[in-house]
């Protein structure tokens, strides 16, 4: 019996050998470039690197300077506001649109394409388009005033107190379509017998969604949450295209802080420290997701 087990194991190792050989370049790329680059960045974040990287360790000095910088604190605050609101509105709007699409409406394919189309655009294009739309000279404010409401004011990109909400509008316009498609795929996976049973029992549709359908779509919500969160942490293009971080530093975000310090201020140590903090944020998002997705399955 033991000999049979030993004979089976080599065969299992040789199974799909071609696929395993073909995956070697990808594995090496992931290990050397991504993992190696990550470790390299973290190590040099404790150095005093300026224009070029150098191993002159200064301990936690770069991190102390980072968290003492008003610009970094503003970037973190903007990311928190943008991130929380983006998560909430993307999930709510995306799910509501998916629920409407799931009613077998006419021209569903057309509407689905219209809602998903903005996601095909780059953030630069989206940012420029919404910069024009929100421009007080010829955007929404100008159009409404031309209709007779002379006192109407809507210039979020030029108001430091609400500029982050102007960026949020553009982000929701672009990303909500993808969330809608993910949610729609989850809704189409719900057994039709559940809907029939709820109708027979006289359960209102909103209660069916809230207490039956949404709990069944937990994997879809978790995956969507991770996709949205990863986009939030690395938001950069949209800010640069709409405001370039202005007015002043009112719309600055961590990714722009990293870019400016690494390529403009020529302070690699500070840029590496900010990058490491962003990496830590991503880890805080990914690790719980991995635990929920794979830890639960393993226990099951």
Automatic annotation (TrEMBL):
- What residues does the ABC transmembrane type-1 domain cover? 76-291
Annotated source species: Ciceribacter naphthalenivorans
Q: Which UniProt keywords apply?
A: Cell membrane, Membrane, Transmembrane, Transmembrane helix, Transport
Please give the start and end residues of each transmembrane region: 21-46, 79-101, 113-133, 162-187, 208-233, 272-292
Gene Ontology CC = plasma membrane
Task: Name the membrane topology term.
Answer: Multi-pass membrane protein
List the InterPro entries hit by this protein, alphabetically. Answer: ABC_transporter_permease (IPR051393), MetI-like (IPR000515), MetI-like_sf (IPR035906)
Q: Which SUPFAM superfamilies match?
A: MetI-like
Q: Name one GO biological process term.
A: transmembrane transport
Q: In which family does this protein belong, per the annotation?
A: Belongs to the binding-protein-dependent transport system permease family.
Protein name, UniProt field: Sugar ABC transporter permease
User: At the top level of its lineage, which domain of life is listed?
Assistant: Bacteria
Where does the protein principally reside?
membrane
Subcellular location(s) of the protein: Cell membrane
| Pfam families assigned to the protein according to its UniProt record, in alphabetical order | BPD_transp_1
């Amino acid at each position: 019996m033991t000999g049979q087990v030993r004979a089976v194991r080599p065969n299992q190792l040789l199974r799909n050998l071609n696929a395993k050989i073909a995956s070697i370049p990808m594995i090496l790329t992931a290990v050397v470039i991504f993992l190696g680059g990550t470790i390299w960045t973290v190590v040099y974040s404790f150095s005093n690197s300026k224009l070029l990287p150098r191993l002159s360790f200064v301990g936690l000095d770069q991190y102390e300077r980072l968290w003492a910088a008003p610009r970094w604190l503003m970037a973190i605050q903007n990311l928190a506001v943008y991130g929380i609101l983006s998560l909430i509105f993307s999930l709510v709007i995306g799910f509501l649109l998916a629920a409407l699409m799931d009613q077998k409406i006419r021209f569903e394919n057309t509407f689905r394409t219209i809602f998903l189309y903005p996601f095909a655009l780059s953030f630069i294009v989206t940012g420029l388009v919404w910069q024009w739309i929100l421009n007080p000279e010829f955007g929404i404010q100008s159009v409404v005033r031309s209709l007779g409401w002379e006192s109407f004011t809507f210039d979020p990109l030029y108001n430091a107190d609400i500029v982050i909400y102007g960026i949020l509008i553009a982000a929701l316009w672009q990303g909500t379509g993808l969330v809608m498609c993910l949610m729609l795929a989850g809704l189409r996976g719900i057994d039709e017998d559940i809907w029939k049973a709820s109708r027979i029992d006289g359960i209102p549709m909103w209660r069916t969604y809230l207490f039956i359908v949404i709990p069944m779509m937990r994997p879809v919500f978790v995956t969507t949450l991770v996709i949205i969160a990863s986009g939030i942490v690395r938001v950069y293009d949209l800010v640069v295209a709409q405001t370039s971080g202005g007015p002043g530093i009112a719309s600055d975000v961590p990714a722009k802080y990293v870019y400016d310090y690494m390529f403009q201020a020529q302070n690699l140590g500070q840029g590496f420290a900010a990058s490491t903090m962003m990496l830590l944020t991503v880890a805080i998002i990914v690790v719980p997701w991995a635990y929920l997705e794979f830890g639960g399955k393993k226990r099951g």
